[in-house]
Amino acid sequence: STPCEHSFPTRRSSDLTMSRKLEDLIKKDRENEKIKKDMISNISHDLRNPLTSVIGYVEIIQKSGCKDKALCDDCIDVILKKCGELRDLVEDLLEYTSINFKGINIKKKPISIKAVIEQIMVGFIPTLENLKMSFHINAPDKKVSIVGDINLIVRLFENIINNSIFYGKDGKKIDIEIMGIRSEERRVGKECSQGV
Known about the structure:
Elements: H1 13-46, H2 48-64, H3 69-96, E1 108-112, H4 113-130, E2 134-138, E3 145-149, H5 150-168, E4 173-177, H6 183-195
Helix pairs in contact: 1-3, 2-3, 2-4, 4-5
């Protein structure tokens, strides 16, 4: 008798291509979800810094009883700026939690490092006073600038200062030194990074 012959269906190339595309989409979706979770976690942490400043300046106004109008006006100015930061962070949080996640929209522009740090340190004054701490900013006469997203830069420096206060409060003083990079160092650094 002739043995039975069985033919098994083979996967067509189009099916394989479709399968790979589906796998890639699933992988990309997982990566996007991880990025989104990391960003939400970071922003949730960053909300604490401006909120702490707002609370601190509200307490200053409360203690002074608004008898010193200039002091109250300064406190209100800082509170309004910090509320603006809180609004931006909440808007970022809402954007990152949206279904159609497309990543970070970075808006780059020239930023004066000294001006940004001075503005940030004003927000930390109530916290520093409560801990009996002081700070000093040492900057060169020549303006030091970088190109970047102002909101991301502010959040970066706020976290650095916040950690400096938390881990260095026993030292009672925060020294901030701003240094520029000479063109030769910038060129060498660029060449090294390109060679890696």
